Description:
seven-stranded mixed sheet; alpha+beta; Immunoglobulin-like; Glutaredoxin; 11 helices
Amino acid sequence: xxxxxxxxxxxxxxxxxxxxxxxxxxxxxxxxxxxxxxxxxxxxxxxxxxxxxxxxxxxxxxxxxxxxxxxxxxxxxxxxxxxxxxxxxxxxxxxxxxxxxxxxxxxxxxxxxxxxxxxxxxxxxxxxxxxxxxxxxxxxxxxxxxxxxxxxxxxxxxxxxxxxxxxxxxxxxxxxxxxxxxxxxxxxxxxxxxxxxxxxxxxxxxxxxxxxxxxxxxxxxxxxxxxxxxxxxxxxxxxxxxxxxxxxxxxxxxxxxxxxxxxxxxxxxxxxxxxxxxxxxxxxxxxxxxxxxxxxxxxxxxxxxxxxxxxxxxxxxxxxxxxxxxxxxxx
Length: 331
């Protein structure tokens, strides 16, 4: 599957069979946090005799949304689509589903098929595409959809690789903006987190962050063998940088408090801050950081910004060394 050549006059979508929406405005665009309305319109038209032609200046493959904003908030009145140069795009009304139906080209078919898989299978299908496919455009479209669930370090690395291959595009700009928006939200939200330590005392994450240059928020549980494999590396970093403004805040995700207590004291004698809210993976903190597997960690600056994530083994101490050296040179 190769990227089609750019259309001279931009991508066009033709709609038919929309008589029930005669007189309504139909829009093609995409959600963008930088837009005042939160939605960047690339083309619009009014439905006449059930038909409309959406003309855009778009000359690249891109995921968009086609919607009828004046017809109500119903889910069926908007549809995600991937448009591409040199392809015939059609929009119609699917009476059986009471929803807009889009027909496009091979990229739309590929991603739509992956997204139709149930549950986690859809996520895995997208991963196969953005990790393993040769076509960089197909990989970018898969990454665009996976990005909706929260970017991670692997995705960021792949995004940089694809940008070097494909050059500038609206999709790269948008994903960067979405990443910045999530980072800002996360930095603000983390300040409101509270949990209890082993003594039953409340610990405010905002206080921990304010008292240190860097704090490692480490998610773990008593049953997680890989979590305990990290302890020697955590101890090494803690002993080396604990007096230079580094703290570890271990956030436990055990179902049973006794399992947490036993693992924290009798078995491993964890010396750093150690808290839980007792809700395991149902914790709003786990949801905030989108934790679905452990170990998982986030290195946070004093303002709550995420500096790095999932620094495993010696990489934590190495990264802290770089950060502390840079901070010392700035002082």
